[in-house]
Amino acid sequence: SKLGDSDLMVSRCCLGTMTWGNQNTPEEGCAQLDMAFDEFGVNFIDTAEMYPVPPSEQKQGDTDRVIAKWLPKRKREDIILATKVAGYSKAT
Predict the structure, then answer these.
(1) pLDDT tens across 7-63, in order?
(2) Closest alpha carbon to 42 in 15, 81, 77, 63
(3) CA dist., res. 2 & res. 76, Å (int)
(4) Which of 33, 47, 53, 92 is 20 to 30 Å from 26 by CA-CA measure?
């Protein structure tokens, strides 16, 4: 599917990553990425620098580190990363 008015083509399903680092290990996150990409054609990945949730100062960025570990096995141009920046806050 075409993403909005852009020329980007994304899978109909976007893979959420907010649990990688708390509820899932990095190895499980990489396995989920492999399965989504290889078996289901998912090329659209949602992340945020504050993940995993619930946010904590100690774990902030763990989800992005899982993606960074997995990404070198793929052609970067085949992956669409959706992200946002919120930052850690004790009020979160």
Answers:
(1) 999 999 999 999 999 999 999 999 999 999 999 999 999 999 889 998 888 998 999
(2) 15
(3) 18
(4) 92
Determine which one of 20, 37, 44, 51 is catalytic.
Answer: 51
Helix (H) or strand (E) holding 82: strand 80-82
Q: Structure pTM?
A: 0.86
- Per-residue 3-state assignment (H helix, E strand, C coil) for 45-57: EECCCCCCCCCCC
Q: Which amino acid is it at 41?
A: G
The yes-or-no answer on residue 51 being catalytic is yes
Contact at 8 Å (CB) between 42 and 32? no
Structure tokens at 23: 């509820």
